[in-house]
Design a protein that fits this description.
The protein is α/β, with parallel strands linked by helices. It has an eight-stranded parallel barrel, surrounded by six helices. Helix 9 links the parallel strand 7 and strand 8. The protein is globular and about 70 Å long.
């Protein structure tokens, strides 16, 4: 499974990229607004830090305007994935942009039928939103499983990008089902390494080592 991080905060991206765990980045208008920076400047800087796909979202709602914005965003760097919403206008834009050879991330997916449409429109990534489905008492993981089955049935190449991830369990469950990518908030990604038995074991090892009075580098 590939890990994308869901943020536009440069310091967080740079810090996590140094671990080798970051395969890409997803942004959206809300994250750009939170960063307080110009969309073009921050997106270009992210693309320089992370060589993998960096999703940059259009803000237009009509197809021709989405296509124009998408082509402009794609010109920022070769690793831009243009992000469009799962509407009929968004699907039309997806088809045009993918025909141009650009990566396209179709976002705000909440049903298997929507995911099927995105794949047929040539999407590089489909972004089903797990947390938002859980919020209304629907099973986000069931959606991931349904999309995986449909894509495998027809050999669609669109990658399933599990989004709106809230917990470490979301990551593990999406990985077991077969999502290709998880886009994860930095705080959740850092928690993936946490386990109380790891902490307990390390404390015991360090205590035993201290009693030896030795140092590896001396």
């Amino acid at each position: 499974m590939k890990f994308f991080i869901d943020t536009a905060e440069i310091d967080e991206i740079r810090d996590l990229a140094a671990t080798g765990m970051v395969d890409g980045v997803t942004t959206n208008p809300s994250l750009i607004a939170k960063s307080g920076r110009n969309i073009l400047e921050v997106t270009k800087e992210i693309c320089e830090i992370v060589p993998g796909p960096v999703s940059a979202e259009v803000t237009a709602t009509e197809a021709s305007a989405m296509i124009e914005e998408g082509r402009f965003l794609a010109g920022i760097a070769p690793n831009i994935a243009v992000k469009v919403p799962l509407t009929w206008d968004g699907l039309r834009a997806c088809k045009a942009l993918s025909d141009d050879g650009h990566m396209v991330n179709v976002t705000l997916c909440f049903s298997a039928n929507q995911a099927l449409l995105a794949a047929k429109a040539g999407a590089t990534f489909i972004s089903p939103f797990l947390g938002r489905l859980d919020d209304i008492n629907l099973d986000g993981m069931e959606l991931i499983a349904d999309i995986r089955q449909i894509y495998d049935n027809y050999d669609f190449k669109t990658q399933i990008l599990a989004a709106s991830i809230r917990t470490v369990n979301h990551v593990a469950e999406a990985a077991k089902i077969g999502a290709d990518v998880a886009t994860i908030p930095p705080a959740v990604l850092k928690k993936l390494a946490d386990h109380p038995l790891t902490d307990k074991g390390l404390a015991a090892f360090l205590a035993d080592w201290a009693r030896t009075g030795q140092s590896i580098l001396k």
